[in-house]
Amino acid sequence: MRNVASDIAGLFPTMDLSRRGFVVTTLAAGFALTVQPVQASTITTDTVDLIAGEVKIPVKDGTIPAYRAQPVGSGPYPTILVVEEIFGVHEHIKDVCRRFAKLGYLAIAPELYTRVGNVVAMTDIKEVMATVNKAPDATMMSDLDATVAWAAQNRGNTKRLGITGFCRGGRTVWMYAAHNPNLKAGVAWYGPLVGTPTPEMPTNPVDIAGQVKIPVLGLYAGLDQGILADHVAAMRAKLQETGNTKSQIVVYPDAQHGFNADYRPSYNEADAKDGMSRCVAWMRANGVG
């Protein structure tokens, strides 16, 4: 039997695997407190014929928890990074991983806010926003790189690598698409495109559009109060201007921000189903599947 711990340690032989300075060292069960009570529309995907649960990802300064779901079997499986909303890797993000696993993928969602706060346990949305905004893009990029390395050692085919994410995670999709040239495709769900630079987020997707060399599908909401039509138009123009004609942005005119979040009032079943269908087709058409 393979020694998975040895495999992981071998990726980072000089790493101190302590948990110093990490606020979150294990994933919480259930849904984030901020979003409760959940809606009757909430989708629950079973684990039949899947390997699913928490794993530990070695990173440069310790380990971070992640949720992994994949088919039972030896693989290797095409790999999809699933990037959380502002609410952390809670039950909805875990369920999204299981949905992809049912389609034959290794889907993995690292907890990227582990150093800044336990957003799943917070009850004040202002505290959640302030916390996630402390997470540096550079650290997120590094943690996603480490997650890819882990997947490559654990039945993931990272030559067929994709990324998808929601809300802040949708923004991270664009940023990681510029960071990692080995990606095949990305799908960004209602991720912010413009913003005021901060030390943690010195650039935004519209600023790095020219560095995005892979096809990214953006899924956006026409009724979004934060991501405006002007923002979408600016991103489309930048992509066109910099020659990324493979990327596309789709706007659902009657959808609100969070329209794929089936556990929230913002859920739009028709648009969510269409978006997921487009997401899977996009991945498969671009080498992730």
Describe the structure.
- This protein has 289 residues and is α/β, with parallel strands linked by helices.
- The chain has a single domain, classed as Rossmann fold (3-Layer(aba) Sandwich), CATH 3.40.50.1820.
- It has seven helices and eight strands, in the order αβββαβααβαββαβα.
- The protein has helices at residues 4-11, 91-102, 125-132, 137-152, 168-179, 229-241, 269-285, and strands at residues 50-59, 62-71, 77-83, 106-110, 156-166, 185-189, 216-221, 248-252.
- It has an eight-stranded mixed beta sheet, with helices on both faces.
- β3 (77-83), α2 (91-102) and β4 (106-110) form a beta-alpha-beta unit.
- α4 packs across α5 (168-179).
- The longest helix is centred in the C-terminal third of the chain and has 17 residues, at 269-285.
- The radius of gyration is 18 Å and the shape is globular.
- The two termini are 28 Å apart.
- The relative contact order is 0.13.
- The model is unreliable at 1-19 (pLDDT under 50).
Which structural class do the helices and strands define? Answer: alpha/beta
Number of helices: 7
The portion of residues assigned to helices is 25-40%
Any idea what the CATH superfamily is called?
A: Alpha/Beta hydrolase fold, catalytic domain
Distance between the termini: 28 Å
Main sheet record? 8 strands, mixed
Count the domains.
1
What amount of the residues lies in strands? 15-25%
Described by the principal axes of the CA atoms, the overall outline is globular
